Amino acid sequence: MSYVDQVIEEVITKNPAEPEFHQAVKEVLESLRVVVEANEEQFKKDALLERLVNPERQFKFRVPWVDDNGQVHVNTGYRVQFNSAIGPYKGGLRLHPSVNLGIIKFLGFEQIFKNSLTGLPIGGGKGGSDFDPKGKSDREIMAFCQSFMTELCKYIGADTDVPAGDIGTGAREIGYMFGQYKRIRGLYEGVLTGKGLSYGGSLARTEATGYGLLYLTDEMLKCNGKDINGATVVVSGAGNVAIYAIQKAQQLGAKVVTCSDSTGWIYDKDGIDVALLKEIKEVKRARLTEYAAARPSAEYHEGKGVWTIPCDVALPCATQNELDLDDAKVLVANGCYAVAEGANMPTTLEATEYLQANNILFAPGKAANAGGVATSALEMSQNSERLSWSFEEVDGKLQNIMVNIFHNLDDAAKRYNMEGNYVAGANIAGFEKVVDAMTAQGIV
Ligand code: NDP
Prior knowledge:
Distance between the termini: 26 Å
Number of strands: 13
CATH topology of the largest domain: Rossmann fold
Bound molecules: NADPH dihydro-nicotinamide-adenine-dinucleotide phosphate
Largest sheet: 5 strands, mixed
Strand order of the largest sheet: 1-2-4-3-5
CATH class of the largest domain: Alpha Beta
Strand content: 15-25%
Helix content: 40-55%
CATH architecture of the largest domain: 3-Layer(aba) Sandwich
CATH superfamily of the largest domain: NAD(P)-binding Rossmann-like Domain
Structural class: alpha/beta
């Protein structure tokens, strides 16, 4: 059995009931096969892959909090510190009922390579809780966040582990968590990113993931003789990533005709009205039915369906495994020529393979959505300097980072004779830097 297959098998045996983690490890190691085979003896002797797939450390803890009726609830909190070879652990905190250790490990594992691809000194980590912020009052959210941070603050710090937002963790939650960290540790430091502008946040962080997705997509299209200007785009999601992806796509001249949330989706033949979408999702925190009620050109449908709308470019920006093989077949049949992942692992392995086999340009999330974490690292730099950069300065750096990421993965794919395979290119480019650092630092 090859070394790659042996490690995949061990991961499955040792971590039962963590299918998302298995999927992420398989996807990465399969595409690294050529690199591993070229160095198999050394990597095996150093147990390099075993060290890569085992987190350096993981925490699981109780999070008790009291609701507005005096009822006590207990959620589970997680923080997985996966790999610190190239910098302090960095990765978001997800608050969603689906959260379990396997999901946090899949996200933390992917984060290692994504962070490496940014070219910035940040290691890989991830955390969160199975707490559901939906329908909770501000006081209940604060009670949860304070309890969560009371435990988490023991394990994080500006030079050790710097969490950020993710699904369910926006500016409000980061604010409550930052306040509690400061109160307990007595330290005013850049321990979290995604902070508000009045207390150390970075301009352009809110927009960064969605904007970055479009900067990379734009570069990928240009390098393949296509143009985002004039393209019809379908987007899933209606959260932070989706909203700013839609906004930047429109600024670049594309027509975006869909968005979705966890209950339904919108088809707006005149193009999504971003101001209205922001008002509904960012201010009112309401459902998409309100969007359709306010826009005569829009149709609302229950369930999932954005991939059925004919498009040139598809941008999945909601959650993992939301674009499956059947969806991929519909996209190809409808003439879509590019898919770029705004969310983390939104495309199933079978769907990815089908898209690539049909010559669809495919940009994986770990490269395409790296703008968020890259700008988080820029927020860390500003906090260390105790300075704030202008929106234009941060946005300009973000644009450069995304264009460089695309060329790094394009070059890596070409070096291993896999031109156009950006999945392999992203994994190889991210892996090479981490392996170099791990090897230099000895067996730790
Ligand atoms: P948000 O919580 O702001 O938005 C998530 C969106 O996806 C919402 O519209 C939500 O619907 C929808 N959604 C969530 N779960 C499901 C589900 N199971 N089925 C269908 N729709 C669902 O999160 P973000 O926009 O921040 O994150 C989206 C994705 O991007 C995630 O995979 C995240 O890990 C990834 N990502 C985010 C980054 C960031 O900077 N924010 C950085 C890099 C990656 P509803 O409104 O009903 O909840």
